[in-house]
Design brief:
Elements lengths: L4 E10 L2 E16 L5 E12 L21 E11 L3
Antiparallel strand pairs: 1-2, 2-3, 3-4
Length: 84
């Protein structure tokens, strides 16, 4: 049902490093678009640590701290059409 929440579990590969990840999926529902195509929509979100995938570049700031944080938020807006 629209507004339902699910988990997406799978492997994510970045820069040759594969890790198991778990993202949240919010199902948006089904609808017919203006062209008569039956479609579904969903939003997938999750957070990864970029350093777990070997993305370790950074630069110190003059005010302290670093330029790029470890955590990266991934958001995927999905739309799929029914194939006849």
């Amino acid at each position: 049902a629209a507004g339902s929440d699910y988990k997406v579990i799978g492997d994510l590969t970045l820069r040759g490093v594969t890790k198991s990840v778990e993202f949240d999926l919010e199902f948006g529902g089904f609808a017919t678009d203006p062209y008569g195509n039956y479609k579904m929509a969903a939003t997938v979100t999750g957070v990864i640590n970029r350093e777990d995938f070997g993305v370790v570049w950074n630069a110190p700031l003059e005010t302290g701290g670093v330029l790029v944080g470890e955590k990266v938020t991934i958001t995927i807006e999905l739309q799929a059409a029914l194939q006849a």
